[in-house]
Design brief:
single chain, alpha/beta, 8-stranded mixed β-sheet, 10 helices
């Protein structure tokens, strides 16, 4: 009888926990709908980011996207993809007040964290977009973005999911539609596989590699001329060490070449050696659960 009572008590507590988590998410979703620095699936934004940030800096309430003028950027625009809680968008915003930053992610309850901090700290040059990454070209005009940061994305380790990796040429071609010619892309990851995959893409397609290290916090790299203070920003997912690699990998490269589609098949053959059976999601199910 005691075991049954314990069992049902756990069931009730679990349901309460799930309900509380659900309520918290709803509260966060409601909050970001009122935030001026969060746009959800915004329409007609290409070319308007300069005007948007000017209005945000003024403290304008209920910014009308339709009334924003298309104009050339007066400040560099930096994009963080798969931003999660927005640690990089916020961290970079603190470092560089003369630039504008946009974090993009589909998880509104995660975006809430970064957007709330930006509001609290008066970072009027930091904003967020809630949408899918494969729709990113809908929100930026040609040459509107200066740099892209990809920080701790799901490495999509199965070869069958390689096209979902955010440094796959499929995605790089999307970025080239709005990134300035020769624009820079940064990848920070704890996945050795994603790191090696990205280096393979850079080499195969003849892109310009600027920096590559498999130990960004190692003394050798930190004392080198390639060290970048922006790498000191740490995300929540970095702390989880989901890949169990105990090292953070970093790559900086230019998207300065045309990415021939004919090479995609060759890439597919090369990366077969990188096949791994577990993804971030399966690791989470096995006990390394990522908090929302």
């Amino acid at each position: 009888m005691k075991n049954k009572v314990t069992y049902y008590s756990h069931r009730i507590l679990s349901r309460k926990y799930i309900c509380n988590m659900g309520q918290k998410k709803l509260i966060k979703f409601a909050a970001i709908k009122e935030y001026e620095n969060v746009l959800e699936y915004p329409q007609g934004m290409p070319g308007k980011w300069n005007a948007f940030f000017q209005e945000l800096a003024k403290g304008t309430n209920n910014i009308s996207l339709n009334d924003l003028a298309i104009s050339q950027p007066t400040k560099p625009l930096v994009l963080e993809l798969a931003c999660g809680r927005g640690e990089y968008a916020v961290g970079l915003g603190r470092m560089f007040t003369n630039q504008n930053f946009v974090g993009l992610d589909i998880k509104g309850n995660r975006i809430w964290k970064g957007a709330s901090i930006a509001n609290r700290d008066g970072l009027k040059h930091v904003a967020f977009v809630r949408t899918q990454i494969d729709q990113v070209t809908q929100y930026f005009a040609k040459n509107e973005v200066n740099e892209i940061w990809i920080t701790f994305p799901d490495p999509q380790l199965r070869v069958s999911k390689a096209k979902k990796r955010l440094t796959h040429p499929k995605f790089l071609r999307l970025y080239q539609q709005f990134l300035q010619p020769g624009g820079i892309l940064h990848l920070k990851t704890d996945s050795p596989n994603l790191y090696l995959f990205t280096k393979t893409v850079i080499e195969l397609f003849g892109l310009t590699l600027l920096t590559a290290t498999d130990d960004v916090y190692g003394s050798e790299f930190m004392q080198s001329e390639q060290w970048d203070e922006r790498c000191t920003i740490k995300t929540y997912y970095e702390g989880l060490n989901i890949a169990s690699s105990n090292r953070i990998h970093y790559i900086q490269f230019k998207l300065d070449k045309e990415l021939s589609i004919e090479l995609d098949e060759k890439l597919k053959d090369i990366i077969a050696e990188f096949e791994v059976t577990e993804t971030h999601d399966s690791l989470a199910r096995n006990g390394k659960q990522a908090m929302e």
